[in-house]
Each structure stands twice: as C-alpha cells, then as structure tokens.
Transcription regulator MerR DNA binding protein
Amino acid sequence: MYSIGDLSRRTGVKAPTIRYYEQMGLLEAPQRSEGNQRRFAKAELERLAFIRHARDLGLTINSIRQLIDLSGHADRPCADADRIAKEQLASVRDRIAKLQKLEEELERIATCCTGETIGDCYVIRALSNHSLCGHEH
Amino acid sequence: MYSIGDLSRRTGVKAPTIRYYEQMGLLEAPQRSEGNQRRFAKAELERLAFIRHARDLGLTINSIRQLIDLSGHADRPCADADRIAKEQLASVRDRIAKLQKLEEELERIATCCTGETIGDCYVIRALSNHSLCGHEH
DNA sequence: CTAATTGCTCTAGTGACTAGAGGTTCAAGA
DNA sequence: TCTTGAACCTCTAGTCACTAGAGCAATTAG
Ligand SMILES: [Zn+2]
Ligand SMILES: [Zn+2]
Ligand SMILES: [Zn+2]
Ligand SMILES: [Zn+2]
C-alpha cells in the first residue's frame, strides 16, 4: 500500500495531479486509511504509469479514459484503440506542419532586422504587413 | 467609423474577440456612439490586423502588448522587439522538436499493431511499457 | 413605426493542471 | 506516551486565449 506521496515519488506525478486523475475518472477511488488518507495498491501504480505515458505522448484525458475502458475487455477487437493512436499521430503531424510554417516566417522576421530603431525595425514592419510573408498561417 | 461588426468582417476577427483584446489592453477603448456602441477609426483597424497577424504567428497576448508599447516609440532601439521575435522562434523550434519525437513513437505505436483483440494490442502494450519506446519524451 | 439585426455587459466554460488556504493525520524521536 | 513536523485532506481559484449564452438596448431597413 502506497500513500499518495509514495506514488508520486515512484511515478514522478505530483500528488495534486494524481487526485485530479482520480476526479477525472482515470484512476479508481483508492482505499483509504482510518484517517481518510489514500492508500494505493500496485495495480493503481501501474495504471498511473499508463496514464502518464499516454499523457507524455500527448493523448487527452478523454482518449486515455477510452483506452482504459477498452483495456478492461481483453477479448474485444482492438480497432478502437488503434484508431485513437492513429488519430493522435495525425494530430501531431498536423501540428508539426503548422509549426513549420510558422518557423519559416519567424526565421525571416527574427533574423532579417538590420534596423537600429523601432522606426525601421523589420520585426514591427513584418507584423504590420502580412503580405511580406511567404504564405498563409 | 466602423462598428464592431464592420471591423469583424474586415479582419476576420470575431466581435467577442475584439472586445476581449480591448479588455486585455491590446486595443485602446474606442469612441462610442450615442447609444454606447463602439465606433472604430482606421488606426484601430490597422492595429487589429497587427494583433491578428502576431497571434497567427503564435505570439502571446503579453508579447503583443510589449510590441505595441514599443511601436509607439519609433526612436528607441529595437533590440527588445528583435528579442521577442527570436524567443518566439526558439519556442516554436522547441515545440517542433518535441512533437517530432512524439511523432516517431506514435508512428511505431499506431502502425505496429498486428493483434486482433485488446489482449494482444500493441497500442495498449506500448502505452503500458515505456521501455518499448526509442527515447524519452 | 415596426421588425430584424446588431450591439451591449456580465458570467461561465474550455483542458490539464497548479497554487493556496485552512484544517487533519501520520510517523518518528524523546 | 507525547510532541513535533511532515504529509495529507478538501475546496476554491487561477492559468491562456478565447467562446457561448443570457438578458437587454440600439440601430437600420422597409
Ligand atoms: Zn528590429
Ligand atoms: Zn503573415
Ligand atoms: Zn491493436
Ligand atoms: Zn514512451
């Protein structure tokens, strides 16, 4: 049996975050001590590691809840789980593509200023005038 | 003189967002009609375009406020403006690098499942076990 | 003049936490 | 056994950049 602090140290997840996951229904309400403090079993530690790993990969609380629900039915087809992973991959690729466009524009904006004063600063001029940009964002 | 709806149509920024920018101090409080409705001058239209462009490039409200403050002093050195742009570029690059790591892991996780059921789904196994990952995230 | 549209303010909700207040319980040393 | 200090509890509010909605007032076209 782990206290919330033990669990926190073992997983690197802060105690308020663990309580938050419980509130969001990702962790089941654990047993309590006589004085009402949380006492976690090993299964909860493993589930928390699962949650943390999924969060580190950018999955939302909602997706993680779905995956946890699925993982309780070992005999069902895994198409839903695969779909969630593929959607997350697509979303990450989408964000990368958008950020790369920004990077391109920002590189120009941030490195082309040869001015000395605000009056002729390329940063300010470029922000005032989108037509200096190479594409939409 | 533009109403908030005129301004919205001309810039593509929704009316509540325009009010929000005013509240955040990015737009100065505009003149009002007799009936207390906002009436914007051309200068505000240009400033709103500036704000919108900066937002599209990912700058925060705070950075934009600083840039607006700077742009009122044409004779001052532009080092601060240049620094804000460079910091934003660095932040975008940082986010791209992190997302690319995620992309790599997610690609493996999302495409390697040859299982049929949750019980042997690679997605679930990979999320349960970070040691299957190629690197940290 | 009337009806439709547009505008006003204010409040609350989003996601995934984080910080703080104000109080209680636990564990270890004396 | 007692005491002290760390850890824990619940609850509320704040973060960021909006967005949605309620309930009302002003404007504009016919
Ligand atoms: Zn400059
Ligand atoms: Zn642009
Ligand atoms: Zn699968
Ligand atoms: Zn991993």
In short: Residues 3, 14, 16-17, 20, 24, 33-37, 55, 60-61 of chain A lie near DNA strand C (CB under 10 Å from a C1').
